[in-house]
Amino acid sequence: MKVKKIPLRTCVVNKTQHPKKELIRIVATKENVVSIDLTGKSNGRGAYLLLTKAVVEKAKKSKALERKLAVSVPDRIYEELLELVAKDE
């Protein structure tokens, strides 16, 4: 039987690789609209984050998402990410 390949993605904050399903994707469209992509298939430039409180806070402090997406990331995105972290725990 053929072994199915698991797609890996790199977290923009701690630079570690994880299976795509363990990370959350943040997308910036051509209109510079930033959103959280729960499906992983939205159009636009994407960046992946490990969904933990420490990583989300470090992303906000270091502006890693802003550098990767080349747009300004509003505070509401970080608030929504922290809410998602709270739901998972």
Which secondary structure elements does this structure contain, and how are they paired or packed?
Layout: E1 8-10, E2 17-19, E3 23-28, E4 34-37, E5 45-50, H1 53-62, H2 64-69, H3 75-88
Antiparallel strand pairs: 1-2, 3-4, 3-5
Helix pairs in contact: 1-3
Description:
- This protein has 89 residues and is an alpha+beta fold.
- The chain has one domain: 2-Layer Sandwich (Hypothetical Cytosolic Protein, Chain: A), CATH 3.30.1230.10.
- Helix content is 34%, strand content 25%.
- The protein contains 3 helices and 5 strands.
- It has helices spanning 53-62, 64-69, 75-88; strands at 8-10, 17-19, 23-28, 34-37, 45-50.
- Strands 4-3-5 form a 3-stranded antiparallel sheet. The protein has a two-stranded antiparallel sheet with strand order 1-2.
- A hairpin with a 6-residue loop joins strand 1 and strand 2 (17-19).
- Helix 1 runs antiparallel to helix 3 (75-88).
- The termini are far apart.
How many helices? Answer: 3
Helix/strand-derived category reads: alpha+beta
* Overall geometry: globular
Q: How are strands sequenced across the largest beta sheet?
A: 4-3-5
Label this structure with key terms:
89 residues, alpha+beta, Hypothetical Cytosolic Protein, Chain: A, 3-stranded antiparallel β-sheet, two-stranded antiparallel sheet, 3 helices, 5 strands, 34% helix, 25% strand
